[in-house]
Amino acid sequence: MTRLNFTTDTQRQALARSKGICECHLIPHVFKVFCGLPLGNANTFFEHIDPDGLRKDNSLSNCAVLTRTCWKFKTHRFDQPVVARAKRISDKHNGVKDPWRQQLPGGRDSFLKKKINGRVVIRATGERA
Fold first, then answer.
1. Looking at the structure, do residues 62 and 101 belong to the same domain, yes or no?
2. What total number of domains does the chain contain?
3. Where in the sequence is the domain holding 127, given as residue range(s)?
């Protein structure tokens, strides 16, 4: 799954809307305080308000112009964990399992279970192995 980038027209409109100031206030679920830092040449990042991994929306309403500091904070503290959790939930719903996890004897997905006292039982029927 590849990340979709904003078109140049959308980037121009978002930059004009920002008037040269960081738009972290457009993302209230992540930022509690508006930084108000000016945007620079190497300090301008066009970021999805709702993560691209969740919603494939490249419209102007989902675009925010952020400084490097706000962009890194949002990406590492919010986007990556939220998208990873959504993928785990989707995989569980669709029955996708890690092949290594199924091969470990006594693991959660194994048909055998080892009790605390050391006795090995079969999970489904509870009989001793």
1. no
2. 2
3. 97-129
Torsion of CA 71, 60, 42, 50, to 10 degrees: 10
If asked whether residues 77 and 28 sit together in one domain, one would say: yes
Distance (Å, rounded) from C-alpha 117 to C-alpha 110?
A: 18
Please report, in tens digits, the pLDDT of each residue of the chain (129 residues total).
566 788 999 999 999 999 999 998 888 777 877 888 889 888 899 988 888 878 888 888 889 999 999 999 998 988 889 889 999 999 989 988 777 665 666 666 677 888 889 888 887 754 554
pTM, entire model: 0.68
47 shares its domain with 109:
no
Handedness of CA 73, 77, 83, 87 (dihedral sign): positive
* Burial class of residue 41 in the structure, from the number of CB atoms within 10 Å of its CB (0-12 exposed, 13-18 middle, 19+ buried): exposed
Asked if the structure places residue 2 within a domain, the reply is no
